[in-house]
């Protein structure tokens, strides 16, 4: 049976990971704009970073509606954050390598959202998670397709 405390915990975990993802995209955009081979990715990184910020706002609103205290910071230990740190180190190597690292980070956040959607959460919380997941899934699918296109070439 879904409980408010469980919903709040799951939402706050997603908030941390989604903040890390948004921060990672913003850092990647700054780095990409200075990397000749990946400069065109900067706008894409910014777009997904902005989408993640919107998702964080929605997740926080749900935590507040449930009477909880929403997370306001990411987790330095999050897998998505580690992936974006690795990403920063591959700029200047190859475009394909940059895309592979972004896709690896997207795998992490996608899995977290999928776990949350299979958890015992309330209908309203599930709706908020599913809405945020749509953006996560779009980011994952975009970079997965780019990665596979690069492998085909």
Automatic annotation (TrEMBL):
Membrane-spanning parts: none
UniProt name for this protein: Uncharacterized protein (TIGR02284 family)
Organism of origin: Polymorphobacter multimanifer
InterPro entries: CHP02284 (IPR011971), DUF2383 (IPR019052), Ferritin-like (IPR012347), UCP029477 (IPR016920)
Top-level taxonomic group: Bacteria
Domain DUF2383: 8-118
Coiled-coil ranges per UniProt: none
């Amino acid at each position: 049976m879904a409980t408010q405390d469980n919903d709040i915990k799951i939402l706050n975990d997603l908030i941390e990971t989604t903040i890390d993802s948004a921060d990672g995209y913003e850092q990647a955009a700054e780095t990409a704009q200075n990397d000749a081979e990946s400069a065109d990715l900067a706008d894409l990184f910014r777009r997904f970073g902005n989408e993640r910020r919107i998702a964080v706002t929605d997740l926080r609103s749900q935590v507040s509606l449930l009477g909880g205290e929403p997370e306001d910071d990411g987790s330095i230990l999050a897998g998505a954050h580690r992936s974006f740190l690795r990403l920063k180190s591959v700029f200047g190597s190859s475009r394909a390598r940059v895309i592979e690292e972004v896709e690896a980070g997207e795998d992490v956040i996608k899995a977290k959202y999928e776990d949350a959607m299979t958890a015992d959460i309330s209908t309203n919380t599930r709706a908020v998670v599913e809405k945020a997941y749509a953006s996560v899934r779009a980011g994952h699918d975009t970079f997965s397709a780019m990665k596979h296109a690069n492998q085909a070439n």
